[in-house]
Design brief:
single chain, about 425 residues, Urease, subunit C, domain 1, TIM Barrel, 2 domains, eight-stranded mixed sheet, 16 strands, about 35% helix, binds N-(iminomethyl)-L-glutamic acid, binds fe (iii) ion
Length: about 425
């Protein structure tokens, strides 16, 4: 396999001989860097690094690619721990409806929203769904994402949920970047079960879950814990069932109202609890005694004009916080993690170092990828970003509309 050497790096960012699994509280502001550095990758992994002043030179040129990174930063790539990027069609007409005064809930109540996407997905062939989703995956890699979680939840029937999860598996099998799959059958109650939530829950528990487990299609189980969707009690049942099949819980919680999602997630040992617009001080206390990663999805809060989750307060309380994109057609039609970093800084008052850790180390933890990604550490996968010529890390979230990703490296190989 080829070897890669990157030399004359202006700043090598997030460098640890031994990386922490996650960063909490004050430690989120730490970002160890080496100025004027070199980095060597072998067998697709990070091998060695150092200062150019101590650069040992090249003794073996065989199969070696050399990149000159003068003026550029080298970063561990972004890890996006919450997306719905497998979907069919788009929902820009609902976007216009919301501009004209309808709420997200009103649109959902008249059959739009998640049910609109479910209708589109059910009539889309698996191959077509794969092609649309592959294009989105390619797009986010170009924007610097080097590992992603993708949820089902726009199928809402056994056949269509399986179709989504098979598409996620096909995306994983492209072997571009690590892809984790989450079963989100409990995303909404489909039209054919209107007024019969229990019937749909039975379908999830008795039919979908066993089939998904049999085919090994999911790593995680999720639910939309929200009024008019699934209660804390429903969520608990779904999580207990999922755990019996080896699926780890992660949860959509407290997005549109306070629904005791955080409490349920913590009690069920969820690895991540996401959204958090209606998170209370009592919830922050619950999170302090857990290993659940609080995850903010700034794209959705921005796009739906929701109150901002208390990310700053959480960090000041000593908690870890992750930021992910929630890339989906209804509430966050963007998977651009650099933009999420800008929102983290501008709207949530994270400093650039905290924001960077929130989209790398902490999201990697929430996907069980803490030993593989999230920092420049020997033995970790060489999935890296080379920036364009920029003055500092802070310039990334500052220049919020500029494409500053010059080169993406996956498994030690130049991607674009
Ligand atoms: O994470 N909150 C629930 N699910 C998605 C939105 C789904 C949709 O509107 O299509 C979210 O925001
Ligand atoms: Fe989501």
């Amino acid at each position: 396999m080829k070897k890669l050497l990157i030399k004359n790096i202006k700043t090598l960012v997030s460098v640890y001989e031994k990386a922490p699994a996650k960063l909490s509280g004050k430690a989120m502001a730490q970002l160890p860097c080496i100025e004027n550095a070199w980095l060597a990758c072998e067998e697709g992994k990070i091998a060695e690094y150092g200062s150019m002043e101590d650069f040992p030179g090249i003794s073996d040129w065989k199969d070696l690619q050399v990149l000159d990174a003068t003026g550029k930063l080298v970063l561990p790539g972004f890890v996006d721990s919450h997306t719905h990027l497998v979907y069919a069609g788009n929902r820009e007409t609902e976007f216009v409806d919301r501009i004209n005064g309808l709420s997200y809930e009103e649109i959902a109540a008249r059959g739009g929203g998640i049910l609109n996407s479910a209708q589109n997905l059910r009539t889309c062939s698996e191959d077509e769904l794969f092609e649309q989703s592959k294009q989105r995956l390619r797009e986010i890699i170009t924007q610097g994402t080097v590992a992603v979680e993708i949820k089902s939840g726009y199928g809402l029937s056994t056949e269509s949920e399986l179709k989504m999860l098979r598409v996620i598996r096909r995306l994983r099998d492209l072997n571009w970047i690590p892809v984790k799959a989450t079963f989100l059958g409990a995303h909404a109650i489909p039209v054919e079960f209107k007024g019969n939530k229990q019937g749909y829950l039975n379908l999830i528990l008795d039919e979908m879950l066993p089939q998904i487990a049999k085919e090994g299609l999911a790593d995680y189980i999720d639910a939309f814990c929200e009024s008019n969707y699934f209660s804390a009690e429903d969520t608990r049942k779904i999580f207990e069932a999922g755990k019996k099949y080896g699926l780890t819980p992660r949860l959509h919680a407290e997005q549109l109202s306070h629904s005791n999602g955080i409490k349920t997630a913590v009690e069920c040992g969820a690895i991540s609890v996401d959204h958090l617009e209606f998170c209370t001080d009592a919830d922050i206390e619950l999170l302090k005694n857990s290993s659940t990663m609080p995850t903010v999805l700034p794209g959705a809060a921005f796009f739906l004009n929701l109150p901002l989750p208390p990310a700053r307060k959480m960090i000041d309380a000593g908690l870890p916080v992750a930021f992910a994109s929630d890339y989906n057609p209804g509430s966050s039609p963007s998977g651009n993690m650099k933009l999420m970093m800008s929102m983290a800084c501008v709207q949530y008052k994270l400093n650039p170092e905290e924001a960077f850790n929130a989209v790398t180390i902490n999201t990697a933890y929430s996907l069980g990828l803490e030993n593989e990604l999230g920092s420049i550490t020997p033995g970790k996968r060489a999935n890296l970003i080379l920036t364009k010529n920029i003055p500092s890390l802070g310039f990334l979230p500052y220049a919020f509309g500029s494409d500053l990703i010059d080169t993406v490296i996956l498994n030690g190989t130049v991607w674009n």
